[in-house]
Structure of Alpha/beta hydrolase:
Amino acid sequence: MTEHVILLHGIWMRAFTLQSLARRLRVAGYTVETLDYASVFGGIEPAIARLRERMRAVDAEVVHLVGHSLGGVVALEATRGVRKLPRGRTVCLGPPLRGSAVARGLASVPGGRWLLGHSAGALVDGLDAWTGSRQVGVIAGRLPLGLGIAIGALTSPHDGTVSVEETLLPGISDHCTVAASHTGLLFSAEVADLTVGFLRAGRFAPVRR
């Protein structure tokens, strides 16, 4: 059975930041692609449309999604209540699913909302509880290193940008935390292993080396 993974980056980032994770997923046996989108000037709606288009176009029986930060929001919204998409699972890495204190702090200062661009609404307000058919797993970081500490009132534990509390969305299948910063989630071998475990079984199991 052919299983494909589409990776999505977060705000202010580009697809090249996903290459380390992509390599690890390919070693695990998946075909992998990265989806680049204009997180500020385009926002999540065009990204959602592009993701659905790519999911339908992929020649694979199973299409999994792995989104970092805002990319996790895009992944959930692209598959919420939509029929005739390939089956698969979704893993979100450090996603501000309940809304972001850092985004709210940034939006409150002059010019801050401009920096968030068309993704401001999703980041400030967060998402409704997950009721989709796809299993969703969330990996949150608890290493408090990042510029977000100076912008928003983050509740501990957090990864320097997103608090663990902000990643806990009702309706998801599983949740775990790792000792990684927000950006560090992309380069962690443990995160990659946990992601593979969830894509295979729909749950996070302890990493064995």
Q: What stands out?
A: The chain has one domain: 3-201. The chain has a mean pLDDT of 93. The helical segments are 19-27, 44-57, 70-79, 101-107, 112-116, 120-125, 189-201. The chain is about 30% helix and 15% strand.
